[in-house]
Amino acid sequence: MRLHSLSAYADALCSDGSPAGYYWQPAAAESGDWIVMLLSGGWCWDAPSCEERCGGERRSSHLCSSRAWPAEREATGVLASPHPRLGAANKILVPYCTSDAHMGDAAAFGLEFRGAAVVRAVLHDLVTTRGLGPGARLLFGGVSAGARGAMVHLDYVRGMLPLPREARRRVEVRGLIDSAMWLDDPPLRPWASTRKSFFGLANATANVASFANVTHLGEECAEEHADELWRCLFGAYRLLSVRTPYLAVGSQFDTYQLDNDFGGCGHWGCRPSGPEEEAFAWRFADETAALARSLAVGERYVYSSRCHRHADSLGGDFFLRGCGGVSMQAALLRLLEEPATLPGLWIDEQCDHFDCCCRPADRTTATAAAASLAAIGLCVAAYALREARRRVAKAVCPSEGEGVPEGTPAVGTNGTSGPAVERV
């Protein structure tokens, strides 16, 4: 994917004032499918946290500036899918440099918070220079901070397209909101060292709402939460009122939220330590599953694994299946290609330990390898005792007999006994 600058759009700025941009990979052949994904990277919520993020030498980091962005970037996850519906699409990846979860349009603390302006510029550029128009099927989504931005903008995407009203109506819009299912719970403990102004995700969101000038609040949400508009930037509240069909992905052991709730213990390596944290993590899992159920209405698919994961739709885990044999890709294709079957809901609750059923492909491979070794051993023994055990050799060794003995249970692709499940 090649970088395209948005320098022609005066307000499409990174936090340091440099021009934002997007990575672009056109379809190999003419296609009406488009995928726009907003990238992740946290945010800042007040003067101290914004100084920590973009102050001094950090002002030129990729999260605050475009100056060091590479000219090319590899497509991954949903942007690298071989499935015809996804693989044949025009693909756009929007890097994250605005520190506001792609939502704001303001200046504060000596920085620019222009995420919404960047999104508008990207959509404008796709219409005016790339050919997005009537008849297009647009998947608009993001991961983590990008998912929160996608959540906020999704119902406004058509309106941001520089097309006549009737032409806009002929653009199909769907959403992929990966890891925006934030819960409004107080953290187990405060941050002990850095981020001393962090008092939970809800408090941070309220702070951002106070200075970032987020205008895409959603009419229904803004009416319901008129006295606390910050809730319209927060997953537990806003996802309920988004009307555009979407796939919501939320891990029951979300690494980002648990890291913040446990006081900063290393994100991906942040696992419960001791009874107190374990009890908190399981309450978190149960509340996430309950939120997932509440979202599964209308033209939505909600996907919640019991994995210690976060924002995986742009990674290899997009293709992996959980205990029930369902991958994120399969869930997304259900949203895009089988709307008559919606709402859809997949909640992984088949195991009772932390971070379980998260590498079924690995377990299947290991099971198959073990079975192969066992079969080889049996074959060797059978050949050694050919004359005395010829019938046994025919039963267990494919080269000598007729294949697997009748009645042997098949190993499904989820690593358990049962019928194989086709991988989508």
Tell me about this structure.
There is one protein chain. With about 425 residues, the chain is of the alpha/beta class. The chain folds into 2 domains: about 1-360, Rossmann fold (3-Layer(aba) Sandwich); about 360-424, no CATH class. Helix content is about 30%, strand content about 10%. It has 14 helices and 11 strands. It has helices at about 45-55, 85, 115-130, 145-155, 155-160, 165-170, 200-210, 220-225, 235-240, 255-260, 275-295, 330-335, 360-385, 390-395, and strands spanning about 1-5, 20-25, 35-40, 90-95, 105-110, 110-115, 135-145, 170-180, 245-250, 300-305, 345. The strands form 2 sheets. A 9-stranded mixed beta sheet has the order 1-2-4-3-7-8-9-10-11, sandwiched between helices. α13 (about 360-385) packs antiparallel against α14. The longest helix is centred in the last third of the chain and has 25 residues, at about 360-385.
Compact summary:
The protein is of the alpha/beta class. The protein has two domains: 2-358, Rossmann fold; 359-424, no CATH class.
